[in-house]
From TrEMBL:
GO terms for molecular function: S-adenosylmethionine-dependent methyltransferase activity. InterPro entries: Methyltransf_11, SAM-dependent_MTases_sf. GO terms for biological process: methylation. Transmembrane segments: none annotated. CDD domains: AdoMet_MTases. SUPFAM superfamilies: S-adenosyl-L-methionine-dependent methyltransferases. The keyword S-adenosyl-L-methionine applies. Residues 61-155 form the Methyltransferase type domain. This is Ubiquinone/menaquinone biosynthesis C-methylase UbiE. Pfam families: Methyltransf_11.
Length: 211
């Protein structure tokens, strides 16, 4: 498959059959244009949500940063101390070209602990990433260590996977252990309104405070 995949080809290609790094090696060259054409806005929604809770001078981790859409949205709001982390070298190169991150880390989010200090960030975003991780518990536990007490985590999950992976029970466990406090869980919203076959696929926005 040609790495310079065209959008028309992408729509007919089952990238889900590839591993994550290979999938995004193919997707990286057309990712930003693709999601723009599909009407994707989750990066902006998430950045604006974070902005309601976290001052712009605070350090933020963008976990699963991809090409840097969330980082760009945060930069547009005035955030300057944003660290991006992603498993895909090709996506990270695109993020670096955008110049919106203070630092970029190449890391697989399923590998814990992450290569950053505890309490290093006032907040973290994880947008459009957790659908690739069947067991979110270690990832959420790691976020709790990386985010300062009183800080915030903003993440999304596809509605169908939120149920399938047991997010309700998992998040209640964190709440009952006084590790996280729920601030907001959205109603399901369509996230790719212009992509054929996706108009009935929805995701959920979640905001939790670290205790």
């Amino acid at each position: 498959m040609n790495s310079e995949l065209q959008l028309s080809d992408l729509a007919q290609t089952d990238l889900s059959e590839l591993d994550v790094v290979e999938r995004y090696a193919h997707f990286a060259p057309v990712y930003d244009q693709s999601v723009h054409d599909w009407g994707y806005q989750s990066h902006r929604v998430a950045a604006e949500a974070l902005h309601r809770y976290v001052a712009i001078h605070q350090p933020v981790l963008d976990a699963g940063c991809g090409t840097g859409l969330v980082g760009a949205a945060l930069a547009d709001l005035g955030y300057k101390d944003v660290t991006g982390m992603d498993v895909s070298p090709d996506m990270l190169r695109r993020a670096e070209e955008g110049g919106r991150y203070r630092k970029l880390l190449s890391w697989d989010m399923t590998r814990t602990p992450y290569p950053v200090a505890d309490d290093a960030f006032a907040a973290a975003t994880c947008i459009g990433v957790l659908s690739l991780i069947a067991d979110p518990t270690p990832v959420l536990r790691e976020f709790r260590h990386l985010i300062q007490p009183g800080g915030y985590l903003v993440f999304t999950q596809q509605e169908i996977l939120y149920e399938q992976y047991g997010y309700g029970n998992i998040l209640r466990g964190f709440e009952q252990r006084n590790e996280l406090r729920r601030e907001f869980i959205s109603q399901p919203v369509v996230y790719l309104p212009n992509r054929e076959g996706y108009t009935d696929r929805t995701l959920i926005y979640c905001i939790y405070q670290v205790i």
